[in-house]
Amino acid sequence: xxxxxxxxxxxxxxxxPWSTLLFIGRRSFKRYSFAGIFIVIFEIFxxxxxxxxKWWKFYDLRKSFVRDELPFSVGPYxxxxxxxxxxxxxxxxxxxxxxxxxDGVFAFVGMxxxxxxxxxxxxxLNRLQFFLYIHYKAYLLYGAQYLYERITRRQGEGKxxxxxx
Length: 165
Fold this sequence. Notes:
There is one protein chain. The protein is mainly alpha-helical. The mean pLDDT is 90. Strands 1-2 form a two-stranded antiparallel sheet. It is elongated. The chain is built from 8 helices and 2 strands. The chain crosses the membrane at residues 7-25, 31-49, 95-114. This is Permease. Keywords: Membrane, Transmembrane, Transmembrane helix.
């Protein structure tokens, strides 16, 4: 059975980050949504693997991927990814720095808070391993956005060539 605390936490972890996208702007939302969707899908597969390997443990007795891990995948990953891209895309060093800060806060501070709230704790990973587990996806996110920009730029150039003839 899911505790009331866990249910409220899941609502907050999904609705909180998504509500911030109201302020990102339509153009930025459209520009960065492909990479955001890509990273969410990739993260779901990562969470399924981590769930199977028991890298973390939720405090509620019945284990459920949909109730436990899925809110982490659907909630903060896409909005945070889009904001990080908005503030730093085009400057890879800045992008990495912002990701190191965000991932470090989540791995070293957030996980302590979640443990005190009796939501989740690390089981077979230490904090550094967990940090590396969440941080390596930053490179994939940036790469997905880079490829998306190259493809859309080429398509735009192709349309211009057709219009000129």
